[in-house]
Amino acid sequence: MKGGTTALFHYLNGSQPAIHYPNGSKSHVDFRPRYHPGIIGAHATKEVNFFNKRPSKIANATLQQQYFASFPGVDALVDQPLAGRCSYPAQLGLSSSSRPALVRMEATAMYLAHPTAAANVQRLLPQVRLLALLREPVSRALSSVNMLFQNQHAHLEQASPAYQQAWQVYVITELRRQLQVLRGCYAKVAPGLPVHRQVDDCVFAPNQTLTGVLHVHVGLYAVHLERWLSHFAPQQLLIWSSHAFDEAPAQHMDQLVHWLGLDPALTWHNSTTFTRMHKRSYPAGSLPAALLQELVAFFQPHNERVFALLQRHGYGSLVQQLRRAWPLELAETISKLQQKPAEHGRQTQVQP
Ligand SMILES: Nc1ncnc2c1ncn2[C@@H]1O[C@H](COP(=O)(O)OS(=O)(=O)O)[C@@H](OP(=O)(O)O)[C@H]1O
User: Fold this and answer.
1) What is the pTM assigned to this prediction?
2) Which of 277, 330, 332 most suits a substitution to test ligand 1, by most atoms within 8 Å of the C-beta?
3) Is 352 part of a structural domain of the chain?
4) Is 240 in the pocket of ligand 1 (CB under 6 A)?
5) 277 lines ligand 1 (CB under 6 A)
6) Helices 60-68 and 117-124, interaxial angle, to 10°?
């Protein structure tokens, strides 16, 4: 969440007006082709929000049918979506001469941090391939709180002093509150149960909700990856630095095509211009230095935990990449947020 999932989804999915499919479902046909014809996104939205529901007693086959109804060209009875098969290849831009492989994808930002999503996915899609984008956690938290603030204060003119003042009060209050709740959760962690189980229980306690701590909690990647890696093998989980993806999108997309075992010759390299998506502005000069320091200090040991976890699971080169990228991302965020508009754009030195 806030790591570039919208951009990734749309780079892969092209841009598509609606058409109708033989099974009665309404779906898409490209006017800008998908990056690879063998990868197609969910209908209508990148976020299906299916696995972040409470576990249900409905039979797996019915649940699978419900889930696959979110994707174009799918009739789960004849289509064998779990086998990567597709009944209407021509409509999806695939050659119909053989039965081509088709990867269906969605990008529900909430899955990574959700306490039961990994278990729910494993139950229905044990062979699934997963991709996580990790953004420097302080920048990610500020992006998250900025989005919520903007959604709730659309009536305020962004350049106005009232907007800046309200932004500052909101960001300080909300981030401090979330930091306090999560410090409490981590302080209670004891030897025994895995850390992610203890933290999930605390975050999901009766007087506490996931959304209530989302800005900070999502960036505590060690607990989330620990949870997903307790359900899936590292071979099923591709993890990218958000910053590296931003710097070299085509290279990452080609890596994805290769990792999914699709034919690279079918890749449509000119399908997208890789412009940033979901980008928001921030009020310059509004982030107090003390809050910034508090955030940096809070995340620092958690970042070390995620580096150690990734190293243990064979993601050593990613760790090196994140150790280089995160200080740069943090410096960019500080430059964007802390300096007065006149100073904006100057180089800023930060401690990693
Ligand atoms: N290609 C690429 N790579 C990395 N990061 C990118 C990219 N495109 C957009 N962005 C920045 O990502 C932020 C939006 O992330 P998401 O699309 O994941 O947001 S959401 O979870 O769907 O709300 C948002 O960050 P902020 O602008 O700081 O809010 C975008 O600017």
Assistant:
1) 0.89
2) 277
3) no
4) no
5) yes
6) 100
Q: Is 143 annotated as a binding residue?
A: yes
H/E element, 245? helix 242-247
Asked whether residue 351 is domain-assigned, the answer is: no
Residue 350 lies in a domain: no
Domain that holds residue 266: 5-343
Say which amino acid occupies 281.
S
Which amino acid is located at 134 in the chain? L
pLDDT by residue for the chain (352 residues), tens digit each? 999 999 999 899 887 655 555 555 555 555 577 899 889 898 878 999 999 987 678 888 888 888 888 887 655 555 666 666 666 666 666 766 555 678 889 999 999 999 999 999 999 999 999 999 999 999 999 999 999 999 999 888 988 999 999 999 999 999 999 999 999 999 999 999 999 999 999 998 887 788 899 999 999 999 999 999 999 999 999 999 999 999 999 999 999 999 999 889 989 887 677 888 888 989 988 889 999 999 999 999 999 999 999 999 999 999 999 999 999 999 999 998 876 644 444 333 333 3
CATH of the domain at 83: 3.40.50.300
Do the domain assignments include residue 348? no
How far is the centre of ligand 1, averaged over its atoms, from the C-alpha of 278 (Å)? 5
DSSP per-residue string spanning 111-167: TTT-TTHHHHHHHH-TT--EEEEE--HHHHHHHHHHHHHHHHTTTS-TTSHHHHHHH
Shortest-distance atom of ligand 1 to CA 6: 17
Report which ligand 1 atom has the smallest distance to the Cα of 47.
Answer: 22
27 lines ligand 1 (CB under 6 A): no
For residue 134, what are its two tokens?
Answer: 């990790």
Kindly give the number of the ligand 1 atom that is closest to the alpha carbon of 276. Answer: 8
Counted domains in the chain: 1
